[in-house]
Amino acid sequence: SYLKRAPLATLRVLLGQPVRAATMQAPQMPRRRSGGRALVGAALSLAVLAMFQCMPTFSQPAPPQSRRGALATFGLVAAPAAVQLMGEESAQAAAPSWAGKYSDPNHPGCKREISVSGTTVKIEGTDGKPGPGCGAGDTQTAWSLTASLKSADADEVFIDFSPKGGPKDIPGKWDVDGIKFPDGNKWSKLG
To answer: Hey, which of 68, 104, 108, 138 has its CA 20 to 30 A from 25?
Structure first.
């Protein structure tokens, strides 16, 4: 019937293929507008454009395609673009949460606590004597260090260890559940 060929006729017009006059007489269905995210809408539009550019043109008319088949083809092209956009949002939301308490395997039982205000980081801790950890028989000495982040969602912190006799800007890289240092030591975040 000519009603089933109407969407195909529209597709042929967009692709520059000849269309019989009878197929263009299909009544127009009212369009419904639905809300949605601008990025997903843009991705879907780009996917449709890519689908039309990739379709070959033939001199013979294509066999009629069901509405379900056309939607399935559209979904195969548009879904990866939408998933990629959603993945980018998830990645941005997964910025490290630096603030909290940590354990340091080089100083077991010693305090390692980080607080963050914007891009300024404060690290408070203790070291034990005779060490290397902070056990029941050790005398604990408290210390405080400053550090900085390049941005609020940065995955690297630069710590000034000079108050403890160390270098000024030691980088610490976020590593899944803690901070990994260039010497291989890793402070693991507790709870």
So the answer is: 68
pLDDT tens sequence for the chain (191 residues): 444 445 555 545 445 555 454 444 445 555 544 444 554 555 556 555 555 555 555 555 556 667 666 656 555 555 555 555 555 554 455 789 999 999 999 999 999 999 999 999 999 999 999 999 999 999 999 999 999 999 999 999 999 999 999 999 999 999 999 999 999 999 999 98
Cα separation, 9 vs 20, whole angstroms: 8
* E strand segments, the chain: 100-103, 112-117, 120-129, 139-149, 156-160, 170-174, 178-180, 186-190
Secondary structure letter of residue 128 according to DSSP: E
Q: Is cis: bond before 132, omega within 30 of 0?
A: yes
Question: CA-to-CA distance for 149 and 173, rounded, in angstroms?
Answer: 11
The residue type found at 88 is E
Cα 61 → chain centroid: 43
- Who contacts 83 (Cβ-Cβ below 8 Å, separation ≥6)? none
**Residue with tokens 């949002």, as numbered in its chain:** 89
